[in-house]
Amino acid sequence: MRLLRFGEYGSERPGILDDGGVVRDLSDIVSDISPTSLGDGILDRLKEFELGSLRAVDGNFRIGPCVSRPGKIVCIGLNFNDHAKEAGMQKPSEPIIFMKATSAICGPNDDLVLPLGHEKVDWEIELGVVIGRKASYVDEIGANEAIAGYCIVNDVSERNFQLERNGQWTKGKSSDTFCPLGPWLVTKDAVEDAGNLTMCLEVDGHVYQDSSTAQMIFNVPHIVSYVSRFMTLEPGDVIATGTPAGVGLGQKPEVYLKAGSQMVVRIEGLGEQRQRVVAMQG
Predict the structure, then answer these.
(1) Please, is 168 exposed, middle or buried when counting C-beta atoms within 10 Å of its C-beta (0-12, 13-18, 19+)?
(2) Fewer beta carbons within 10 angstroms: which end of the chain, N or C?
(3) How many Å apart are CA 207 and CA 105, to the nearest integer?
(4) Are residues 197 and 270 in contact, defined by beta-carbon separation less than 8 angstroms?
């Protein structure tokens, strides 16, 4: 299943994309694609419905983040050998964990707003893992059972805030609109192999990141299991599993986003994001 949320900011409705590419309204079945509905087993219930009986959504509409306000966004740093190398850092011996504020979440095609004082706003294509059931101290088998599905995450980062302003990485990762999420939450049964998906990110028509989740140092079950040792994962939580080489920081000379830039972000089977970069108003 490919679940989504559509409508204006703050008023999104739940939907599902059928095999013909038609969005169907799920509002009569569930109030939202949220931590609560995922925890209540909505994915199992949806399997019983005939999608053709649901109302088709007509016209142009905004696509919102595929999960309504997760409890937390957990990020994994330096999870691709080539990215660790371009960042001038050692390959990690175990996953590096940091957090991204949930207030950074926006829709997959919403404008990316440059924060005040920005100098080095960068891109990072990542496979997002959406948790479907509570997970604490689970092994890799239990980790797989806890996964609801997958989505695209663009882990936008302000490198000056992240690396040159002291403290943890979180403040460079958490500005408003720094976490485009979606377009779809693709359930795990619809993803043949999350460990072998092509990934591509381009800026202004130039491909900067072109890789595969097969290049990850730590695979998805290991990451979920590992994170569950340090915090309880709950339905709706999102784990961003790391980015491959090709970020702006790694270019020679470095390249960063500016007002007017256009990004296209794709992961095989998970859809596409398109973001316009704009200056903050006021």
Answers:
(1) exposed
(2) C
(3) 24
(4) yes
Among 99, 82, 100, CA closest to 91? 82
- Assess contact for 262 and 204: CB atoms under 8 A: yes
Distance CA 127, CA 131 (A): 13
Alpha carbon 178 to its chain's center: 10
**Cβ atoms 230, 128 nearer than 8 A:** no
For 237, the 3-state DSSP assignment is coil
pLDDT means per 10 residues in the chain (282 residues)?
96 95 94 97 88 88 97 96 82 95 98 97 98 98 98 98 90 98 97 97 98 97 98 98 96 97 98 97 76
For residues 221 and 130, what is the distance between their CA atoms, to the nearest angstrom?
A: 12
- Phi, then psi, of 221 in degrees rounded to 5: -60, -40
pLDDT for position 81: 85
Question: Does the 65-279 domain belong in CATH 3.90.850.10?
Answer: yes
> What's this model's pTM, rounded to 2 decimal places?
0.96
Model pLDDT for residues 98-115, shown as the tens digit of each residue: 999 999 999 999 999 999
> 138 vs 88, 144, 186, 217, CA distance in Å?
33, 9, 23, 20
Helix (H) or strand (E) holding 44: helix 42-46
pLDDT in tens, 5-24: 999 999 999 999 999 999 99
